[in-house]
Amino acid sequence: MKYIIIGLGNFGSSLAEKLTEQGNEVIGIDTDMSKVDAFKEKISHTICMDATDEFTVTGLPLKDTDIVVIAIGENQGANVMATALFKSLKVKRLISKATNHIHKRVLQAIGVDEIVLPEEESAERWAKKLCLKGIVNSFELSNEYSIVQVNMPEKYNGKSILDMQIKEKYNLLVLTTISNRQVNTAIGKTRNETKVKGLADPHDILYKDDVLVIYGANKDIQRFLK
C-alpha cells in the first residue's frame, strides 16, 4: 500500500518507519529539514515541504495514495489546515492526529474519516496493563470490547483450550497463542524464541510460559484475570 505521513515527530516518524519496514511505500513529509534528513534512510521517501500549501500539496501523488495520515502534533493550527486541505482534495482515506478532545471535535467538524489520540490510547493500554495482573498488551476495539495478550494462568499448564472452558465460563474467545521457548543454537548456546501459533484450535495444549490472545468484553476479561 501507499501512504503519505505529514509530520515526522515521534508519532509520525515511528508510524512511517514501521509501515516502511512492512514493505509499504511511504512518503514522509515535514517542514523541518533536519527531520527529513534524519529519516531519509528509514522511510521510503522523505520530502521537506509545507503541507498547508495547496499548490505544493497538489503535486503529490494523491490519486495513487491509499491513506494520508496528518501526524502534526505540536502545531494544532497547521494540523487543522493540512487536514482541511487534504479533505478538500478528496484523498481515499484520511486519518488525523488530535492532541486533545477540543482538537478532536474540530477535526470531526471538518469531516475526518478517522482521528487518533496516540497519547491517550497509549495511556489506556498502560492503565489496563498496570491495573490488571497478567496483561502483556491490549488493543481497544471500542469502549466495551478489547483484544488482549495475557500471561497463561499456571493452573492451565498442560491443559487444552477446551479444558479451560473459557467460552462457557467467561464468554471469551482465545484467538491464538504465543509460545516462548528456549532453543539451542548451533554453537551450543540457548536463545529465546517467540512463535505465534496461528488460529487457535480447541485441542491445542497450553504451557506455563505461553501468552494467550483473547477477545471479549472488557468486563469479562477482568473477571477472567481476577
UniProtKB/TrEMBL annotation:
PROSITE patterns referenced in this protein's UniProt entry, alphabetically: RCK_N
Domain RCK N-terminal: 1-116
Alphabetized InterPro entries for the sequence: NAD(P)-bd_dom_sf, RCK_C_sf, RCK_N, Trk_Ktr_HKT_K-transport
Domain of life: Bacteria
Protein name: Trk system potassium uptake protein TrkA
Organism name: Wenyingzhuangia heitensis
Lineage summary: Bacteria, Pseudomonadati, Bacteroidota, Flavobacteriia, Flavobacteriales
